[in-house]
Amino acid sequence: MKKRTVLITGSTSGIGLAIAKAFAQQGHNLIFNGLEPDGRQIAEAVANEHQIEYVFDPANMLHPKALRTLVRQGEQRWGTIDVLINNAGIQHVAPIADFPEEKWEAIIGINLTAPFHLTKAVWPAMKNQHFGRIINIASAHGLVASEFKSAYVAAKHGLIGLTKTAALEGATCGITANAICPGYVRTPLVDRQIADQAVAHRISESDVIEKVILAKQALKQFVPPESIAALCLFLASDAAATLTGAALPIDGGWSAQ
Ligand code: NAD
């Protein structure tokens, strides 16, 4: 694959970091982002290991102006963002009747509205060069629901809707847009859920993993973050030029049911 400039939100932890490492290994220019306090050092370590050019910007997904600056930084340095990977996301688990309104706003803002602002910001330069790849990290929860996750399920379903619309609008200008829908991946986001569920159900963390977390996945194992990264590399490659508007499950058979 030609050397690309790749912006990955939330790339200093979990799935985003695995995606960043995979693109770094192939020598692409990277724009790292994330709110981890040691994010700058994490980005630097990946870049140094693979001798790539990079930028780190802890832009907050809730601030549209910061998102436009994030894109502009990459464009000023490399001319264009070739691949946008909307990965930053948060979760909150509570019944609708008790769901805190500020958590709803934050989940919709980070998981859905930020990908819209970033897609809008990268669009003109992608269109101009007649090449662009937009990859949205949705979730199995973009395809099916679970109780107590109203905001997350709504945001991820919405993200798949945004993906399909971007695919249609991008079809005449060399831009593809796809969503990846992972099942459970063992990251800090899921570790927090395991700990919370153990308290809520009064069971051990290993019982939470077996009886709650992996209950819906036919393959009773977590999805490795590296598998999601490999799928992103494929979607960014020339071989995926006609793959657009898809919501691709990588969920151990969860959404097959
Ligand atoms: P994670 O908590 O390890 O990483 C999330 C990243 O997003 C972090 O870098 C964090 O700093 C960043 N982030 C959060 N809020 C932000 C904000 N306001 N501004 C900027 N950055 C912010 O989580 P993860 O599991 O790696 O999740 C990554 C994506 O994958 C999310 O969109 C999540 O919904 C999705 N996903 C995760 C799983 C899973 O099982 N872990 C499954 C399906 C989908």
From TrEMBL:
It comes from the Bacteria. Keywords: Oxidoreductase. GO terms for biological process: monocarboxylic acid metabolic process. InterPro entries: 3-OHbutyrate_DH, NAD(P)-bd_dom_sf, Sc_DH/Rdtase_CS, SDR, SDR_fam. Its EC number is 1.1.1.30. The keyword Oxidoreductase applies. The keyword Oxidoreductase applies. GO terms for molecular function: 3-hydroxybutyrate dehydrogenase activity. SUPFAM superfamilies: NAD(P)-binding Rossmann-fold domains. NCBIfam families: PHB_DH, PRK12429.1. Belongs to the short-chain dehydrogenases/reductases (SDR) family. This is 3-hydroxybutyrate dehydrogenase.
